[in-house]
């Protein structure tokens, strides 16, 4: 079974939903940059104060900030003896992907598979409106989709060229999608 995984896909594709489920069932470290940033916002830390307005606009938080969060978590895990991990929502642009590649080289680790969750825009918007988080109103959702197309979508070609990409249809029930993901991970 592959143990070092990225989940890639548009906002609302269900990355967080599937990542949590898979990490629990397979004992992987689940690293969601969105959840970690929301935790910082809730705790009112300086980092959270910096991230809050950016997230509310549906834009990407600075690469330096997100990279620092991921670095500290992966270093901690490596020092504690290593293990599998699942990165959910990171990287979100080519600069973050390059930074991750450099960090993993330092740690002597490699990405084993990038699961690309694919879903139509109409369903994405419906799911996010139903979720109703602070950044889930229609105009912010549209903007997050634009940011995804411009900044995150280039990662599809990036990981395809590295022969790591596994596209998965993200429509249907949570269980049906989990089965499709399990099939590509092995
Ligand atoms: P994230 O927290 O990553 O969230 P997301 O992309 O909006 O959602 P996800 O795809 O995880 O969907 P979910 O499972 O929740 O990002 C939020 C913000 O954080 C970004 O806009 C950005 O500002 C910032 N950020 C995060 N990472 C960053 C980075 N690396 N760099 C810079 N900024 C960063 O599912 C959505 C909804 O659908 C849920 O309500 C769920 O219950 C429902 N759902 C899931 N699967 C379903 C199914 N099969 N059927 C019906 N509903 C389903």
List keywords for this structure.
single chain; 186 residues; alpha/beta; Rossmann fold; 5-stranded parallel sheet; 9 helices; 5 strands; globular; binds BIS(adenosine)-5'-tetraphosphate
Question: How does this structure look, described?
Answer:
With 186 residues, the chain is an alpha/beta fold. It has one domain (4-184): Rossmann fold (3-Layer(aba) Sandwich), CATH 3.40.50.300. It is built from nine helices and five strands. It has helices at residues 15-26, 33-43, 46-56, 63-79, 94-107, 121-131, 138-152, 154-161, 174-185; strands at residues 4-8, 29-32, 85-88, 113-118, 165-169. The chain has a five-stranded parallel β-sheet with strand order 2-3-1-4-5, sandwiched between helices. Helix 4 packs parallel to helix 5 (94-107) and helix 6 crosses helix 7 (138-152). The radius of gyration is 16 Å and the shape is globular. The model has no long low-confidence stretch (mean pLDDT 96). The site of BIS(adenosine)-5'-tetraphosphate (B4P) has 29 residues, from helix 1, helix 2, helix 3, helix 6 and helix 9.
